[in-house]
Here is the input.
Amino acid sequence: MTFPLFPLSQPSFPTILHEKHVKFRRKYANCAKTFRYDHAKNGQNFQEYLMKFEYHNTTHLVFGAGTLSRLGEVTSAYGKKAMIVTGGGSVKRNGTFDRAVASLKAAEVSVVECDGVEPNPRLSSVARGGEIARENGCDVVIALGGGSVMDSAKVMAAAVFYEGDLWEMFQHSQKTRRLPTKALPIITVPTLAATGSEMNSGAVIRVC
Here is the structure.
């Protein structure tokens, strides 16, 4: 599954990012000075000690101002019928939903909607989304919202093919669980920086 990232074009975003980046660099520089002072006499190399890590993530990221307009272009590589998952309606009030749909239609991708995903989504909500995608023959699922919307979209994409009780795919009190083996492609459009759900395959769903 692929989870491209399409940050919204917000005038304040570069400023916020810049301010945080500056604060981080100052804090990091102070830590680096402290480390060099404390460990230089022991022969430890700062670069070797602190700057080594390995990172692997197959998520395809599309980042930058205005990249929401490329949603249709990227989606069309996965199919011609998309289910858009949304939450309480803010993406419609601020125009994001209309921009996303316009991009999809320009790429000749038809749209089915699954709206009303609640914060801390319920199992019944994701089951409903799976049914909508299955009944309409959707090729791809698009999450347009925050962490709960993205989490729900992941489960909905798997629910299309999952046989049995969806609750069995989650880890709770059972000894074993039946993990999904197939899912529709998923594209996430985060509307805020919060959970990082666009970068992993996990989901938090409640049964009540």
In short: The longest strand covers residues 140-145.
